[in-house]
Amino acid sequence: MLRQYELVERVREYDPEADEDLINRAYVYSVKMHGSQKRASGDPYFSHPIEVAGLMTDLRLDQETIVTALLHDTVEDTLTTVDEIKKLFGENIARLVDGVTKLSKIEAQTEDERAAENLRKFLLALSDDIRVLLVKLADRLHNMRTLHFIKSEEKRQRIARETMDIYAPLAERIGMYEYMREMQLLAFRHLEPEAYETITGRLKQIKEGDEGQVEKIAGSIQKALANAGLAAEVSGREKHPYSIWRKMQERHVSFEQLTDIMAFRVITDNSAECYRALGILHEKWKMVPGRFKDYISTPKRNGYRSIHTTIMHRNNMRVEIQIRSNRMHEDNEFGLAAHWAYKQGKQPDGQAGWIRDLIEILDHAEDAEELLEHTKLAMYQDRIFAFTPKGTLLQLPKGATTVDFAYAVHTDLGNQAVGAKVNGRHVPLRTQLLNGDVVEVLKSDGQEPQPGWLSFVITGKARAAIRRFVRFKERDEIIEIGTKLYDEIVERLPGKIGRKAEKLALKRLELEEMDDLMMAIGTHHISNRDVMEALMPGSVNDNDADRKWPEQDRAISIEGLTPGVAFDLAECCHPVPGDRIVGLRRSGQNVEVHAIDCLQLADGVDADWVDLSWGADSDGAAARLAVVLHDKPGTLAEMAGIFGFHNANILRLRMTNRDAPFHTFEVDLEVHNVHHLMRILSALRSSEAIAQAERL
C-alpha cells in the first residue's frame, strides 16, 4: 500500500504544481472515514482507495482525479455525504465522487435492476466528465485483482460477469487496452476456470519448449528492418489467454489448430516509418490475404491506430505483426487517459459520439433488462466501416444493416427511413453492410419505424429507438381501442354520468387518470362489469351471468390502428376488409381479430368477445389462398399474371403438395378488401391453367 508521502511524490513527479495539501487532506480523510473497515482479504479497507489513486498516478492524471480516487467509496461505505465532500474538497470533486458512487442500497430490486440503475447513473455522470469513467475502471481493476479473496462463488461469478460484459468493453471503447486485457484475463479466470488453466498451461509448455523461438522471430524481423536502414523496436509475446479462448469458440477449433498464438509489435518513430516498415516486411515475407488492416488511415472509434498484418515466416508459420509509432503505442495502451484532454475542459476527440449514443439508449430503455441489453450491444461488438455519400466515416458492429446505419447518422433519419442505396444500388433495408460501403438512406416524412425492423437491426441505439416508438404507438392505439369500448360501456348504463362519476370510478379502481382506465379496458385487465359498477354502483345485476358475445349497440371500428401493435389479424382465417369480424380480448394481450365464420373461434371461450368493424375507408390486408395448378410449363406464370393484372402483391408463395399432374401452392396475397379478393378468385377459377382456387 502506498504511503501518504509516496503518493504525493508520484503526483508531483509529473505535476509539480499539484496541491500537496489537498492530496494529504484527502488521504487522511479516507483513512479516517473507512476506519476499522476490512476487505475480504483482511487488509484495511482504506488500502483499496489508496491503490486506486496509485493506478491514477500511473496514468499521470490530475490532482482532482487523484483525490476522487481516494474518496470514491466514502459516500457509499461510510457516513460521509456528498454535501460534506463538497464542503471539504470543493464542488468539482464532490460531483466526481457522486458520479463514481454506486446505488448499492436500492431496496426491492432484482440484480439486473440494481446493475441497470448503477449503470444508468454511471453513464450519465461520465457523459458530464470522462474522469468518472477512469476512476471507475481503476476501481474495478483493483477489485478484480483481489476477487479471489471473496468466499462466495456466486458473488465472484456475478462480479466477473459484470466486468466482462460492462467494464472491459468500456475500457476497450476508450482505448485503454492494458486495462481491458487485464480485466478480461481476471474475469476469464473466474468464469471459465478449467479453460483458463488449460490454455495458460499450454502457453507455459510452449514457452518452455520453444527454444527461444519468439526471440528468434523478433530478431529476424528487426534484422530485416535494420538491413533496409530502418531503426525500430521489435517485441514478441504469446497472445492473451482470453483472446485465444475466444478464437477457439468463434472458429470451433482446438488449441492445436490455432496458427496465430504469437504476436509481434514493431514500434517506429512516426507514421511514415510505419508504412515503410510494412513495405519492408511484405517484400521480405509473403503476407496472408485477408489479414491486413490499416487502422492508421482509418482509426477505430476509440482512437486506436496501428497497422495489422500477418506474414508467412519460416516453415510456413503464420506471424501476426502490429506496426505503430511511439505516440500511437502510448495512446493505444492507455487510450483516452493518455490524451490529458480533460485538463483543458474538453471531451477527448472521437469519444463524444459513442457517449451520446449511450445516453440516448438511457432515454429510450423501458426496463433494466432492455437497458443492459442495449448498452452491451453498443459497447461490445466487432466493427466495420461505412461511409455517407459525403464521405463521413461511421463505425458499426459487424452485421449492421442500412437501418442501423440510418440510426447511427441520426435518430430522425432512422425513424423516417423508407429505403437505401449501397454503392449506388437500391437494396432492402435489411441488407447487411460490408467494410467500405457507401450508404445513402432514403427517407420520407410520412414514414414511421416498423416493429418488423426489430427482427434484423443489431445496434443498441436502433433497437432502443424502435422499441420506444413501438411502445408509444402501442399505448396510443390501446388507449384508442379502450376509449371506443368505454364509450360503448357507458351507453349501456341505465343513466348518464359526468366527470364527477368518472373521478369516483378512478378512485374505486385505484387508477390515476382516464388514460390508465382506457389502457386497462383495452388490454382487458379490467372487465366491462367492473367498469360499469365503478361508474354507477348497483348498475350490474349480479344474477345475470356474463355472456361472451358483447351486448354492443354498434361494432367497434379498428380503422386507423396498426396490425401487430394494438391488434393482431388471426393467422387461422386471415380476415380482410369487408369480412364480418369479431375480436377476442384476453388479459395483457393484443385484441385478436377473426373472421366471424372462423372455426378457431370455438377456442375463444376463455376470452371476452368484442364486435368489431373495419371502418368505411379500411384498405389492405393479407389473404391466404390455396391454388391447384396443372403440371404444365407456364401455369405458375399465368397465376402470377392474374395477380399482377388485378394489382395484388404476392407476399409469400409456397408449394405445399406435388401430386402429378397437379401442383398445390399456398399464396399470401396483399389485397384491398374482400371484393378485390373475390374478383381475383373468380379470375383464377376461369383460367385453364388453374384446376382449383380457394380461400384459406
UniProtKB/TrEMBL annotation:
InterPro entries: ACT-like_dom_sf, ACT_dom, Beta-grasp_dom_sf, HD/PDEase_dom, HD_domain, NT_sf, RelA/Spo_fam, RelA/SpoT_AH_RIS. Residues 45-144 form the HD domain. GO terms for molecular function: GTP diphosphokinase activity; guanosine-3',5'-bis(diphosphate) 3'-diphosphatase activity. Signal peptide: none annotated. Residues 624-696 form the ACT domain. GO terms for cellular component: plasma membrane. Residues 382-443 form the TGS domain. It catalyses: GTP + ATP = guanosine 3'-diphosphate 5'-triphosphate + AMP. It holds the Pfam family TGS. It is an enzyme of class 2 (transferase). SUPFAM superfamilies: ACT-like, HD-domain/PDEase-like, Nucleotidyltransferase, TGS-like. This is GTP pyrophosphokinase rsh.
